[in-house]
C-alpha cells in the first residue's frame, strides 16, 4: 500500500481532498493508495441526497461551516480538525471485496493500538455498538474509491446543529440522538490524534509517494467542479408526489415523482443509499409505468441490486406505492 503525501502541509478545503482522490485514481500509477486528511468545520453529503433534507443551511452559513457534496452515496457527515478523514483508492472493481478489504484494514490498525473496533454489516466501523467510522464508495472505470470518517473527538454542538438526521434513521438504529449513536476514539486510547493517525498509516502502508507541485495544480483545477453551485445544490425540479421509506441494509429512499392519470411521467430517487450502477436505468424503466405493483416490478431492471446496493424490486415498489408523505400542488 502506498501512502500519498502532498509536497507541503497547509490548510485546504474538503473539496480539494475529494479532487485529490479522483486525481490519484485517474492519474497516479499505483495499484493501492491511501491517505489521511483533516479539515476545518465542514459538512459533506452524499451524491443522491437533497441538501435541504440533510443540512441546516442557515446555521452552517452563520457559523462558517462549509458545505460540500461528494460523488459517492451514503449519508451526511460532519468533519472538523478533531477527527480524521481516510481515503483508499484501489484497482479492484468489486464493491463488496473493496469495502471488506478497506474496513478490515482499518479495524486491524485500530486493534494494534488497543481499540476494540468491529465492522458492521453495511459500511460502518463500530466500538461497543456505536459508530466511530462511516464509509462510502464510488467507482470510475478501472478504479474504486472508498472514503470515510474517523471520529477521534468532535464539536458535538456543531455536529448536531449542522446535520438534520431523519428520525426514522435514528429509530432504526435503536437510538434517540446522534450522540447516543457515535463513539469517540479519545474514550478508548490515551494517544493524541496525531499519534493515532501516524499509527494507522504505519500499519496500513509500506511505502510513500509525494505528489509534485504540478500534481497539486491539476488537483486544484479538478477541484473547481466540486465548488460549483450546480454540483453542491443540484437541480431539484418540482415533483407532484414524494414518497419516502427506510429499507434495512439499503438506507433511506425518497421517490420524487411527476404523476399524471396514475402514471409515472418522471421520477428521481434521493437518499443515503449506495449507488453502484447507473441510476438512470431505474428512472428510465419507470417512466410511463402505471402506479400498480405488478407493472412497476415488471418494468424494473432485473439487476437492480447492482445499481443500488442490496435493493430489490419489491422494496422499491413498496416505496413508490406507500402512503404519500408529501404532495405539492
Tally of contiguous helical segments:
13
Instruction: Enumerate the strands of the largest sheet in spatial order, edge to edge or round the barrel.
Output: 7-8-9-10-6-2-1-11
- Percent in strands: 25-35%
Question: How many beta-strand runs?
Answer: 15
CATH architectural name of the largest domain: 2-Layer Sandwich
Main β-sheet, in a few words?
A: 8 strands, mixed
Average of the residue pLDDT scores: 91
N-to-C span: 55 Å
- In terms of structural class, how would the helical and strand content be classed? alpha+beta
Instruction: Give the number of domains.
Output: 2
Helical amount: 25-40%
| CATH homologous group name of the largest domain | Bira Bifunctional Protein, Domain 2
- Radius of gyration equals 20 Å
CATH topology annotation of the largest domain: BirA Bifunctional Protein, domain 2
CATH class of the largest domain: Alpha Beta
Mass-distribution shape:
globular
Amino acid at each position: 500500500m502506498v501512502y500519498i503525501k502532498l509536497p507541503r502541509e497547509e490548510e485546504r478545503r474538503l473539496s480539494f481532498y475529494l479532487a485529490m482522490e479522483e486525481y490519484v485514481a485517474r492519474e497516479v500509477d499505483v495499484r493501492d493508495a491511501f491517505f489521511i486528511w483533516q479539515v476545518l468545520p465542514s459538512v459533506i453529503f452524499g451524491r443522491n441526497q437533497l441538501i435541504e433534507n440533510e443540512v441546516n443551511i442557515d446555521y452552517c452559513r452563520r457559523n462558517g461551516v462549509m458545505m460540500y457534496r461528494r460523488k459517492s452515496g451514503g449519508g451526511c457527515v460532519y468533519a472538523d480538525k478533531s477527527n480524521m478523514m481516510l481515503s483508499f483508492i484501489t484497482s479492484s472493481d468489486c464493491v463488496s471485496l473493496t469495502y471488506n478489504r478497506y474496513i478490515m484494514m482499518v479495524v486491524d490498525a485500530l486493534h494494534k493500538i488497543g481499540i476494540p473496533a468491529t465492522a458492521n454489516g453495511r459500511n460502518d466501523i463500530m466500538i461497543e455498538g456505536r459508530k466511530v467510522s462511516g464509509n462510502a464508495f464510488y467507482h470510475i472505470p478501472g478504479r474504486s474509491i472508498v472514503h470515510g470518517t474517523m471520529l477521534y473527538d468532535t464539536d458535538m454542538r456543531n455536529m448536531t446543529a449542522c446535520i438534520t438526521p431523519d428520525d426514522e434513521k435514528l429509530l432504526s438504529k435503536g437510538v434517540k440522538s446522534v450522540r447516543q449513536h457515535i463513539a469517540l476514539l479519545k474514550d478508548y486510547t490515551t494517544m493524541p490524534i496525531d499519534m493515532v493517525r501516524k499509527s494507522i498509516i504505519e500499519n496500513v502502508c509500506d511505502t510513500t509517494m509525494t505528489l509534485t507541485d504540478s500534481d497539486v495544480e491539476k488537483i486544484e483545477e479538478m477541484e473547481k467542479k466540486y465548488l460549483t453551485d450546480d454540483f453542491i445544490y443540484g437541480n431539484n425540479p418540482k415533483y407532484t408526489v414524494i414518497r419516502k421509506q427506510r429499507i434495512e441494509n439499503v438506507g433511506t429512499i425518497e421517490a420524487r415523482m411527476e404523476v399524471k392519470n396514475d402514471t409515472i411521467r418522471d421520477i428521481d430517487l434521493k437518499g443515503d443509499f449506495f449507488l453502484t450502477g447507473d441510476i438512470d436505468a431505474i428512472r428510465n424503466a419507470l417512466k410511463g409505468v402505471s402506479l400498480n405493483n405488478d407493472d412497476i416490478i415488471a418494468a424494473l431492471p432485473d439487476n437492480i441490486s447492482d445499481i443500488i446496493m442490496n435493493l430489490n424490486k419489491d422494496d422499491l415498489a413498496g416505496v413508490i406505492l406507500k402512503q404519500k408523505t408529501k404532495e405539492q400542488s
